[in-house]
Amino acid sequence: MADSTVIDPTKLTPTSIEVMANQATINIGTIGHVAHGKSTLVKALSGVNTVRFKNELERNITIKLGYANAKIYKCSNAECPRPGCFKSFSSDKAVEFPCERSGCGGTMHLVRHVSFVDCPGHDVLMATMLNGAAVMDAAMLLVAANEMCPQPQTSEHLAAVETMKLENIIILQNKVDLIREEQALKHYEQIQNFVKGTIADQSPIIPISAQLKFNIEAVVEYIYRNIPVPVRDFTSDPYLIVIRSFDVNKPGFEVDQLKGGVAGGSILRGVIKLGDMIEVRPGIVKVDSNSNKIRVQPLRSR
What we know:
Layout: H1 17-20, E1 26-32, H2 38-46, H3 54-59, E2 66-75, E3 86-90, E4 96-98, E5 107-118, H4 126-133, E6 138-144, H5 152-163, E7 169-174, H6 181-195, E8 205-207, H7 216-226, E9 239-247, E10 261-269, E11 278-287, E12 294-301
Parallel strand pairs: 1-5, 1-6, 6-7, 7-8
Antiparallel strand pairs: 2-3, 2-5, 4-5, 9-10, 11-12
């Protein structure tokens, strides 16, 4: 692996191995009604549980935007059957390793590095979902097969990404393990009727069970073959859009004990290295008591 201090940004592309080995280059959101399996799908793809906070665990729902990165691999052996020749792992996996299929003899090569944005499905959290949609390059719309389609947030989330002109959408018919085949076929027709005339009209409908990891390889293959990697500008000044934040201060801290917080989002252009000076805008916003004008002071840090 090349040393990050000597990499030439002008020669980088989103599919350069130097980039994919360390950084996700495509953002895919999970959208849909509450409890339709969005976080479970992200865990099946990445191994990361995005439901982390105490109130989320107690209520078993996503409240804050969840992030999880996953690397997608393809076997080098042309005889390795699909979709099993495609696998996804957590982002700490090596660039290549032997195929796990018995007798294959091929090597799994890194072909994509994806960042999943796990959106909450509850109706009162639509604003949070819209924040996540701001950085999405594609979306996976989950529809639980054991409920009628559409449910309220199924419609609202699809309308939201349609408004934001998000063209790459995968529809996942989740929880097919809970119903019979004839029920699954009727539900499939409900989904088709629901998306007719929308931006997802021509989107594939893939039956899965996120809990059992059934047909997950088919989802991984579709992402690789059909979701285009957006063009990234690695030479311009870095620009990061902030879509969530966390307070690291404990309740009852005195003013001199405050340590700030953590801001999270996606780097839309440029490259940031350790030790670089960054500027946070707008920073500190004040109203001048004399002129009644708003004054902004950007924050700078390393």
